[in-house]
């Protein structure tokens, strides 16, 4: 039996579904933002603040941030495992990517919810 030690229990199908689902969420968010920009004739700071003050927009934005994290995490893991052959360098790069992506989500959460 072949064991897959590089994915920590994930399979290729699982990664495929996660990447596609996160892409759908991000696409819907872009459409949502473009729709807001199109229907808002006078885009001021107050309109923008009121838009992001809505609980639904905050939740959708947080879901999109998490989707972006999942998408970047899996995508960059695949790129690094395909193109960076020295194991030590690949581990360091994957660690740095994971720290950066996690920092982006944490800072996005703090900015969004005003923590």
From TrEMBL:
Membrane-anchoring subunit of succinate dehydrogenase (SDH). This is Succinate dehydrogenase hydrophobic membrane anchor subunit. GO terms for molecular function: electron transfer activity; heme binding; metal ion binding. InterPro entries: SQR/QFR_C/D, Succ_DH_anchor, SuccDH_FuR_B_TM-su. Its cofactor is heme. It comes from the Bacteria. Heme binds at residue 71. The chain crosses the membrane at residues 17-39, 59-80, 92-113. GO terms for cellular component: plasma membrane. The heme is bound between the two transmembrane subunits. A ubiquinone binds at residue 83.
